[in-house]
Write a structure and sequence with these properties.
7 strands
């Protein structure tokens, strides 16, 4: 699911995304918006890494995830400091033309 849609439609009463890193939903939205502003083509919350247990939906009101998948267009550079904890930047400290996964533990 596209990340902004996940964040804006999630009805969780608690943190619905990486609550150990983002204190509020608005902080998470701001981070995703920053990714788009700095060149990400698509930012997604992967379905297979989204927790949707019955108890969670009943007690918390929505699913939870701590993972983003970021698609960066080939040929464009996105500064690594925009993508914290990103995996394997190139030797120039750039992420270029691939899918990048971010996970907060």
């Amino acid at each position: 699911m596209e990340a902004l849609e996940f964040l804006r439609t999630n009805k969780s009463k608690f943190g619905c995304f990486a609550s150990n890193h983002f204190n509020t939903r608005e902080e998470a939205v701001g981070f995703v918006e920053k990714l788009y502003k700095n060149g990400a083509r698509l930012v997604e919350v992967p379905e297979d890494e989204t927790l949707r247990e019955d108890w969670r939906l009943a007690e918390e009101g929505g699913p939870y995830s701590a993972t983003l998948l970021i698609t960066i267009p080939a040929g464009e550079e996105v500064p690594v400091n925009v993508v914290i904890d990103a995996e394997k930047p190139d030797e120039k400290g750039q992420l270029n033309g691939r899918l990048t996964r971010i996970w907060w533990d």
